[in-house]
Peptide/nickel transport system ATP-binding protein (Kaistia dalseonensis), 335 residues
Amino acid sequence: MADLLQLENVSKAYTRGLINTHATIALRNISLTLKEDEPTILTVAGESGSGKTTLAMLLLGFILPTTGRIIYRGRNISTLYGEDKLAYRREVQAVFQDPFAVFNPFYTVDHLLTVPIKHFKLAKSRADARNKMEEALTAVGLRPEDILGRFPHQLSGGQRQRINVARALLLKPRLLIADEPVSMVDASLRATILETLRNLQRDHGVSIIYITHDLTTAYHIAKSIIVLYRGGVMEAGDVDAVIKDPRHPYTQLLVDSIPWPNLDQRWGAQPIKAREASGGSGEGCRFRSRCPMAMDQCASEPPLYEISRRHTASCFLYDQQPEVVKERLSEMLPA
Ligand SMILES: Nc1ncnc2c1ncn2[C@@H]1O[C@H](COP(=O)(O)OP(=O)(O)OP(=O)(O)O)[C@@H](O)[C@H]1O
């Protein structure tokens, strides 16, 4: 089976200074393979400075590796020119962290979507262009009639990020580099965007490299994971296995640092009672020992766990302040 993408011992050093040169090794000896006929979601996880964005920049061809090769469908990307380079630019798309940054506030959404259509000559006529925009918006769960004609400030952060995904989808990419796509989006919208990405992989055959510092969202959507630390791969494998049973101390640290409200903690005189103890099953949730919600009683609004494999990342309690957790739990749990 042919490889879609292959990284062979890729390293990247940034050098500065002319006489006393100083090098920062941002990535060292990274190797990975994605198969062409098996669209998948691979997470690249790591703390700040571990080399994640450098990897994204390399994959998008914005910078060149210092050593090693990036092979896309059999071709070294640093040797692509002309039509081949254009095809690579079309087939490998990106969604970045900031859903606001790519929008020009003076233009409507239509403009953002029309530019790639024109640049890559994707449509034969205006009507065809309009159909393609509508198809892409529908594929990411947006209603074209609600979205087209609007200015960026008239949209929510989650809508803007899904429009970014739709823009990528217009180009029928084979590979999507999603660099922290949900980190600037409200917690309640994260699951929707992650679900959109998963649909892209499942229904449109797009492979996704999902870059994040957040292991819960990685666990949520990815099949496999590589964990970066100071530019090197610390651990790699099936996401379930790596997160449930991290072998490397750094991965253990990352897993242990997943924030979660301490439900043993007492606020005031009243202990927080686990709903599990009062009959809920909690089945299906990885954090059921820590979360008081049973799956059928999970109070995420809307009940996001339904679209997630586990309701960890999408649980609205996930990254709330203790005061909010206290308030919401007291509303939901029996006294
Ligand atoms: N243009 C550059 N010149 C010099 N050093 C750089 C440059 N870009 C990144 N670095 C360094 O390379 C290392 C990896 O940076 P990178 O941005 O890839 O990390 P990251 O994991 O994406 O971090 P974050 O999550 O904070 O964005 C860091 O030590 C960073 O300081």
In short: The pocket of adenosine-5'-triphosphate is lined by residues 14, 24, 26, 46, 48-54, 213 (CB under 6 Å). The beta strands are 3-16, 22-35, 41-46, 67-72, 75-76, 92-95, 175-179, 207-212, 224-229, 232-238. The chain has a mean pLDDT of 78. The domain at 3-256 is CATH 3.40.50.300 (Rossmann fold).
